[in-house]
Specification:
Length: 107
């Protein structure tokens, strides 16, 4: 049994099995809108986790892993198209899609 409790991050006590979660609040925005990404990683064997915008390749944020886990968030503004955000912690990868809500106009 692996016991991730104790000092030191990344080392032999972390198996890298996850899980990882990433959410967007909200996960549906109007074009040009903003969302807050939040992520949690447990049992990560890597030293850092990063979130990137897969549409543009831009780095959103890097988070240090401490005692096998990491929790963080970042605000993202100016979302103008359906966007995939990827959380990667070594071999642990999770994608989140933020969708655009169409604007309706009355006639």
């Amino acid at each position: 049994t692996v016991n991730p409790v104790g000092g030191g991050g990344g080392g032999g006590s972390c198996t890298g099995a996850g899980p990882v979660t990433i959410t967007g609040t909200p996960d549906r925005v109007q074009s040009g809108g903003s969302t807050t990404l939040s992520w949690t990683v447990t049992d990560a064997a890597s030293a850092t986790c990063s979130v990137t915008n897969q549409n543009t390749g831009a780095l959103v944020k890097t988070t240090a892993v401490s005692s096998c886990s990491a929790t963080d968030s970042a605000a993202v503004s100016g979302v103008t198209a359906q966007t995939t955000f990827r959380l990667a912690c070594g071999t642990l990868i999770k994608d989140l899609i933020v969708n655009i809500v169409p604007r309706f106009e009355e006639f």
